[in-house]
Design brief:
There is one protein chain. By secondary structure, the protein is an alpha+beta fold. It has two domains: about 150 residues, no CATH class; about 110 residues, VSR Endonuclease (Endonuclease, Chain A). It is about 40% helix and about 20% strand. It is built from 13 helices and twelve strands. The strands form four sheets. It has a four-stranded mixed β-sheet, sandwiched between helices. It has a three-stranded antiparallel β-sheet with strand order 1-3-2. A hairpin with a 4-residue loop joins strand 10 and strand 11. The N and C termini lie far apart (about 75 Å).
Length: about 300
């Protein structure tokens, strides 16, 4: 296998003119190649789509004192964004409030006050707002439901065997303190209100949306992650429901369509039903009509249990 040339390395991802010079390439070399200048001193290959991380790394390399923030850092942290906010054609970069904001093609610049721990190194060459600070950054942009959904993702307890981490991105106490430290920040009032509606236990964005929908339609607030047999380490659990009334609600997302998962789900649901529970299954299709079918079944179940 041939050893990659300096030009091969440059054409593999976004790069800066300084990086090209370090590898012995000058401007004349670059203009002859299949590259596109996307901003001052930053080039991308014309073939392929550069990743958000590569674009951020190249831009930060020529933007001293800046870090990725807002929707850019939210995505780089692997967090959810609603569809209207998931367009990353523009990078969001912040600088401390005593420095001038970033003014560059393809960049939305912000000037902010950041306290220790609110800016982290995600990987070499990429400084970014922490997951919690990213949520606060988006307080001025996201609606109330989206802020709660993103916040639930921050405070949920991860499953180490699947996620490679054992700690939540943030706790309610940490978010409360961060809000206290930024009393005049745009959107902080919306974040404060969202914090009151956030709950530990939602394992997915759809579960949060379902919970908020039920509350909006006047249903009692459901409990989250209900374990059928608390003394049994291998007990099945319900995503949400009502323990006292023995109503379990399971949100079965796309991965539940796999054969092995469907068998596990069937055993899970059978265990609840054998114990006298009513089980309501929710799918992605139910979101299309604001969970209308689910609300109808739940209302019937609540009446039946109350009787």
């Amino acid at each position: 296998m041939a050893t990659p040339t300096a030009l091969d390395l440059m054409l593999a991802h976004p790069f800066t003119s300084a990086e090209a010079r370090r590898l012995g390439l000058d401007y004349a070399d670059l203009v002859k190649q299949e590259v596109t200048r996307v901003s001052r001193g930053i080039y991308v290959p014309r073939v392929g789509v550069p990743t958000l991380a590569d674009r951020a790394r190249a831009t930060l390399a020529v933007t001293q004192g800046a870090w990725a923030s807002h929707r850019t850092s939210t995505a780089l942290n692997g967090l959810w964004l609603p569809d209207p906010s998931s367009d990353h054609s523009l990078l969001h970069l912040s600088k401390p409030s005593h420095l001038p904001r970033v003014r560059r093609e393809g960049v939305v610049g912000h000037r902010v006050t950041a306290h220790p721990g609110e800016v982290i190194e995600l990987e070499p060459g990429i400084m970014a707002s922490s997951p919690a600070r990213s949520w606060l950054d988006l307080g001025q942009e996201l609606g109330p439901v989206s802020l709660v959904a993103l916040g639930d993702q921050l405070i949920r307890k991860p499953r180490p065997q699947f996620e490679g981490r054992s700690e939540s991105y943030a706790t309610i106490a940490q978010l409360t303190e961060m809000i206290r430290l930024h009393p005049k920040m745009k959107g902080v009032a919306k974040c404060r209100a969202a914090l009151a509606d956030m709950r530990v236990g939602a394992d997915s964005i759809p579960e949060t949306l379902l919970r908020l929908c039920l509350l909006a339609y006047g249903f009692p607030e459901p409990e989250l992650q209900i374990v059928l047999r608390p003394s049994d380490a291998f007990s099945p659990s319900a995503d949400l429901g009502y323990l006292a009334l023995k109503i379990a609600i399971q949100y079965d997302g796309a991965h539940h369509l796999a054969d092995q998962q469907r068998l596990r789900d069937a055993r899970r649901d059978a265990a609840f039903r054998e114990a006298g529970w009513t089980v309501i299954i929710v799918t992605a299709a139910d979101r299309e009509d604001d969970f209308g079918r689910v609300r109808h079944k739940l209302r019937s179940a609540l009446r039946s249990r109350a009787a």
